[in-house]
Amino acid sequence: MMLARQAWRQRFRFNARRSLFWGAGLLVIGLLFGFGVAIWMPIAWQLGLTAQSETVAIDLWGKTEWDIGSATVCVRPDRAGAVGEGWVPNPICGDSAWYEVANRSGQAGRWLEMPAIADGGMRTLIERRPDGSAIMILRADLAQQARPLLHSHEEASGTAQALPARVNVVWQPAAQEVLADFMVLPFTGNTIVGRDVTWGRRLLLTEGKISVFAASDEALAGRVLAEEATLFMGDQVRLNMHTDERAYTVWPKGFVRFNTIKTDQPQALAVVAFAAAEGVSIQRYGSGDYGFKPGWWPRIKHKSTLLIVLVLLTGGLSIVAALANILAILPLLQQWRAARRHSRIS
Asked: Domain residues for 273?
């Protein structure tokens, strides 16, 4: 009887160890597989930027339309002497090579249409000057046929006025007692917020914040905040297009907002932009460049599917190990019952 019990215990321990060994092996394999899936599967990392900057440079991509209100539109002819109809000299525009495009509809507001350009966007620079004025500089490639179009709100469609490749739009500050008029300029394209800090440049990024979001199945909004970074005065943020693992091109999008009222304190442009985090870099004076390249740990930490798989895998292995132990014990129980019954009979 003692020998039978010892043999039963030894076989039970051997089967338990074997089940534990196979269970641990399967768990390790599942963990390695989950880590590989988390590292190699694409995750959408979206970056949001909110900043106050005195200068913004944009390479417009696609068709863009902007309401410029009653701003002064200044142009420079593509060829010497090619002065268009309604172009008049104006000191606001600068030297004699520049002309103002007169508003044919009086005091009615106007809007600009920038057509889509295949090879590279239309270069745009928006600056807020210390005197309260704002200027937008548009530059199209001279080799391209596409040119900006100037529309008036009161004129019928189809009466747009074609502009040359070099256009400046100037917003003069209004008096404080005048109701402030806000300009909102949405855009799509590679963007540079701020400038490098040098002794000859006075227009800089003054403050801002960057937020990086990761796609998540657990959040109701479909994304969760992964990281935040504070922007300092003098930072330069570059938002470039990015092609992800699925060959999908993500272009930076956003808008610029400012008012045209004259104040005692200089005001900056309010910039809000969204882009793929992998295509964004921060150039900080004296500290080099900062980028957003997610490593293996952020990928694993923000991959909720991996955590669910690991929990299910652990629970499944526990159930399998318990069933294996039960199945291993059943024959031994039968032998023990048979031996006990035989001992009673004898």
From this structure: 45-301
> How many other CB atoms are there within 10 angstroms of residue 336's CB atom?
15
Residues 35 and 182 in one domain: no
Query: What tokens does 120 get?
Result: 């590279």
Same domain, 276 and 308: no
Nearest-angstrom CA–CA distance, 111 and 116: 16
One domain for residues 143 and 273: yes
| Cα distance between residue 117 and residue 121, in whole Å | 6
pLDDT in tens, the chain (346 residues): 454 555 545 555 555 556 556 666 666 676 666 666 655 666 678 889 999 999 999 999 888 899 998 889 999 887 766 777 788 888 888 888 899 988 876 666 788 988 876 655 688 999 998 888 899 999 887 666 677 888 876 655 556 788 888 899 999 887 665 566 789 999 999 999 998 888 777 889 999 999 988 776 666 666 777 788 899 999 999 999 988 767 788 899 999 999 877 777 778 999 999 998 888 899 988 777 787 776 655 666 656 666 666 677 777 667 766 766 766 676 667 677 777 776 766 6
Tell me the helix, strand and coil percentages in the chain, rounded to 5. Answer: 25, 35, 35
DSSP labels for 205-218?
EEEEEEEEEEE-SS
Question: What kind and span of H or E run contains 225?
Answer: strand 223-231
Q: What is the dihedral of CA 273, 274, 280, 283, to 10 degrees?
A: 20
Burial 165-182 (b: 16+ CB within 10 A, else e): bbbbbbbebbeeeeeeee
Regarding whether 315 and 346 lie in a shared domain, the answer is yes
For residue 263, tell me if it sits in a domain. Answer: yes
CA triple 276-212-185, angle to 5 deg: 60
Domain count, the chain: 2
Rounded Cα gap, residues 53 and 198, in angstroms: 16
Which pLDDT score, from 0 to 100, does residue 85 have? Answer: 79
Tell the residue number behind the tokens 């909720």, with chain if given: 304
Start-to-end CA distance of the chain, whole Å, equals 13
Do 183 and 287 sit in the same domain of this protein?
yes
